[in-house]
């Protein structure tokens, strides 16, 4: 049994805390809101983020970060991307020993284009951990909290650290793989949210399964193009954290990104949609980051570009679909064949 702190008591932090508690670990679930931590301990539920789910007795909620991380062997960061730097700076003040550090956050920072592990490396004192581990894959909190079969991948530059995280989480309901391709695993998890917004918009506009299948596969081509330019192994995008997560996020009614896109497709304005959601929709900031990055590196990402225009330039979704459908004619696998051939000859 290990003492583990899960930082971020939203839907995903709570679901991961439940898995750890099911595996008999002593789990400290940290919320930055005092009332929220108190309510979790009082009601044994997280009403706001996972309504109706009974929490196992092995979970205790904390508001004081120093108390939450006292004597823990492992810290799992599960706050939204935009809160990662702030939480790491707070951790520097309260952690006094080396721990295993993992994160379950899916995003890229606009402006810096940093992945979450890179943001952590910039903010957290390197005395406190060896190499960050990312835990990612097709996994909605709602299903994990109901103990439905789910798969994840733990990846790190230090595979021993990834294996420690695999050990902590693996059980009969949650199968955890490992991967050495941290860049590919982080980028697959972050970039699929852009395409899920697009899939939601497509459904909101009333388009059918053909359109969604096209978005998923051409979206995967964009993810692989940008991802390999950032150093990922293209094969990672065919795995759980690539196509697997793309499928679940584009097709599940649980997806926050799909839901937000669906409302946009039905004509709602972005600010109203985000207020209505009440949970993080990571794809919005990631679209901004990927769009900036694609422009600066001259990478062709037409779906991401269309999404950017809908989200930030008030373009009409239907016009964007028309533009995507009437682009210059292309050979389907042209650039991806080149990427794979380069990789094979490396
Ligand atoms: N929900 C899922 O099914 C799921 C699955 C896999 C990965 N993720 C990823 O996990 C991350 C968290 O998502 P979520 O769905 O749990 O979000 P959420 O909106 O359900 O919860 C976010 C939590 O972070 C807290 N938070 C917000 N700002 C904070 C700050 N500045 N400091 C500390 N805490 C802060 C909120 O109070 C809340 O408790 C995202 O990157 C998401 O993509 C989510
Ligand atoms: O609900 P979403 O859209 O934030 O997606 C959650 C997970 O990333 C799905 O694997």
UniProtKB/TrEMBL annotation:
In the UniProt record, does the keyword Cytoplasm occur? yes
Recorded catalytic reaction(s): these are: sn-glycerol 3-phosphate + NAD(+) = dihydroxyacetone phosphate + NADH + H(+); sn-glycerol 3-phosphate + NADP(+) = dihydroxyacetone phosphate + NADPH + H(+)
Domain (Glycerol-3-phosphate dehydrogenase NAD-dependent N-terminal): give its ranges: 3-161
Sorted UniProt keywords = Cytoplasm, Lipid biosynthesis, Lipid metabolism, NAD, NADP, Nucleotide-binding, Oxidoreductase, Phospholipid biosynthesis, Phospholipid metabolism
Q: Where is the active site?
A: 192 (proton acceptor)
Q: Provide the GO MF annotations for this entry.
A: glycerol-3-phosphate dehydrogenase (NAD+) activity; glycerol-3-phosphate dehydrogenase (NADP+) activity; NAD binding
Q: Where's it mainly located?
A: cytoplasm
Subcellular location per the Swiss-Prot or TrEMBL entry: Cytoplasm
Q: Which GO cellular component terms are attached?
A: cytosol
Q: Where does NADPH bind?
A: 11-12, 32-33, 49, 106, 141, 256, 280, 282
Q: In which pathway does it act?
A: Membrane lipid metabolism; glycerophospholipid metabolism
Residue positions annotated to bind sn-glycerol 3-phosphate are: 106, 137, 139, 192, 245, 255-257
Domain (Glycerol-3-phosphate dehydrogenase NAD-dependent C-terminal): give its ranges: 181-321
**Protein purpose:** Catalyzes the reduction of the glycolytic intermediate dihydroxyacetone phosphate (DHAP) to sn-glycerol 3-phosphate (G3P), the key precursor for phospholipid synthesis.
* Family as reported in the entry's similarity comment: Belongs to the NAD-dependent glycerol-3-phosphate dehydrogenase family.
Q: What is this protein called?
A: Glycerol-3-phosphate dehydrogenase [NAD(P)+]
